Amino acid sequence: MAFLQQRIPAAPASYLHQLLKKGKVTGLSGPLTESQTVAAGMVVQLPASARLDELRAQVVKSAPEVRVLFESRELLIVDKPAGVAIHSSVGHEADNLTARIATRSAARGEKFRIAPVHRLDLETSGPVLFGKGKQACAAFGRLFIAQQVEKTYLALVSGRLPGSGSLLSPVPAKGKEKEAHTDYRAIVRSDAATLLELRLHSGRQHQIRRQLADLGHPLFGDRRYGGPCPEALPRLFLHCSKLVFQDPFSGANQMVEVPLPADLKGFLSTLFRIDQLTKEGL
């Protein structure tokens, strides 16, 4: 059973159990049992192609939805919902974005390694770029390291901020203090709250949250950094709205935009007039 789960990670355990129970998985000496040990050099035969097609159909049907924003031979960009971790972590071992993409890839019969080349925090929504194969992962990873990917975020902060500005301050990063650079522009404002468009020039963990909290304007929904947390807001108000970069393989300029999710947009309507939001395309 463990061997099959390793070789077919997208397959539901219940389906593999049924294959073994019905004697559909065989070795040279006949059907294999669920508890049987697979030794090196041993031949293991799976069902005929029709059964594997059925397996792929079951996997696609049972897998959580993945919203694809853009796809090419080398890259896949998907929309990460808030509350979904990018990698396996405590409490997110069974379901995370990387696992969902692996399930999708396996169901399509793809053999290459696919992995995320940057990250968003658990509560942050927006586009995440996955590289297809080691070469693609390395190439797109270099873009982020060289700060050649333009990253734009939308964040709702407490209080009124001036029209625009830059935040240049050190933030903790891997046990050290490292300089972080964020530009911001106020989109709509009131005495209680300001909706900001932010552009990151560095990629420190919690950069936006730390810098704005240090400025005295923490994000709405940010319990960790002292932001206001009204009951009507279901989560942290931070959304990655745009990625812009030059594809190192095709040479094409790519721009992926993701509008505010419905939960955040709905909360904005409780703070600002509809005509203010409509004027800004929200």
Topology record:
Layout: H1 2-7, H2 13-21, E1 26-27, E2 30-31, H3 49-62, E3 67-71, E4 75-80, H4 97-107, E5 114-116, E6 126-132, H5 134-145, E7 150-158, E8 164-173, E9 176-189, E10 193-200, H6 207-214, E11 238-246, E12 253-257, H7 262-268, H8 274-279
Antiparallel strand pairs: 1-2, 3-4, 4-6, 5-6, 7-10, 7-11, 8-9, 9-10, 11-12
Description:
- The chain is of the alpha+beta class.
- It folds into 3 domains: 1-56, no CATH class; 63-146, Pseudouridine synthase, CATH 3.30.2350; 147-279, Pseudouridine synthase (2-Layer Sandwich), CATH 3.30.2350.10.
- It has helices at residues 2-7, 13-21, 49-62, 97-107, 134-145, 207-214, 262-268, 274-279; strands at 26-27, 30-31, 67-71, 75-80, 114-116, 126-132, 150-158, 164-173, 176-189, 193-200, 238-246, 253-257.
- The protein has a 6-stranded antiparallel sheet with strand order 8-9-10-7-11-12. Strands 3-4-6-5 form a 4-stranded antiparallel sheet.
- Strand 9 and strand 10 (193-200) form a beta hairpin.
- Helix 3 runs antiparallel to helix 4 (97-107).
- The longest helix has 14 residues, at 49-62.
- The protein starts with a helix and ends with a helix.
- The model has no long low-confidence stretch (mean pLDDT 86).
- Any idea of the CATH class of the largest domain? Alpha Beta
* Strand portion: 25-35%
Strand order of the largest sheet: 8-9-10-7-11-12
* SSE order: HHEEHEEHEEHEEEEHEEHH
Work out the radius of gyration. 23 Å
